[in-house]
Amino acid sequence: MAYVDFISSVHKRTQRDYLGRVNEFPKAEAAKIARQFGRDYWDGDRKFGYGGMRYDGRWRVVAETMAKHYGLKPGDRILDVGCGKAFLLYDFTQAVPGIEVQGIDISEYAVANAKEEVRPFLKQGHARQLPYPDQSFDLVISLNTLHNLYCYDLDLALREMQRVGRRHRYLVVESYRNEQEKANLLYWQLTCESFYTPSEWEWWFQRCGYAGDWSFIYFE
Fold first, then answer.
1. How far apart, in Å, are the Cα atoms of 170 and each of 55, 80, 121, 203?
2. Residue 57 φ/ψ, nearest 5 degrees
3. How far apart are the C-alpha atoms of 9 and 24, rounded to whole Å?
């Protein structure tokens, strides 16, 4: 169980106007729309979410780095909890030909509009109850998802990630180290329900018996 950063370089490529996010449109209304996790969130206006999520290969280096770090090989099985449109899962299939992928996401829209090559391996569902047997996967990942859960569902989701994994686990959640990062997170986020410092997140991991790796996204 260790802190391992695979994605901060991708996160930092995006320029964010935090005050603009708050002032351009009523934040409560934007959050209400975003939390439907429908077309507006994925492919609508930026004020409601991603502003159009299209495959551009940016996750390929993340897939390659993770595959090398965890020693993934053909025939190994990966589960992405909160897979969205499954771009990262697709890149895993390119980085490690012959690897088996599965993904689950709460958004029916995301699953229906996911990368075509991996769409047959995706399910619509909730992280608090994963529809897979114990120890089914060599690597279970969850990127930028679990902070969207209320604490009672977060507890269950962490336990589920631990249950279905048999070798490696890795998650990324949003966090803050000071009041500036906390304010920026609150300005920018649309769907978060769990706001914790790094030490609080680590408390959650220990409490739920999560024995995988992790890293944090900061809004600096």
1. 22, 10, 20, 16
2. 80, 5
3. 27
Residue 12 has pLDDT above 90, yes or no: no
> Which residues, including other chains, have CB under 8 Å from residue 200's CB and lie 6 or more apart?
none
Q: List the structure tokens of 154.
A: 């977060």
Q: What residues are paired with 216 via a beta bridge?
A: 173
Q: Judge contact between 58 and 81, C-beta under 8 A.
A: no
CATH superfamily of 8-21+54-217: Vaccinia Virus protein VP39 (3.40.50.150)
The type of residue at 16 is R
**Average pLDDT, integer, range 57-64:** 96
Given a contact cutoff of 8 angstroms between Cβ atoms, the answer to whether 158 and 210 are in contact is: yes
Separation of CA 126 from chain center: 13
Could you tell me the two tokens for 185? 């997170």
Average pLDDT over residues 137-165: 98
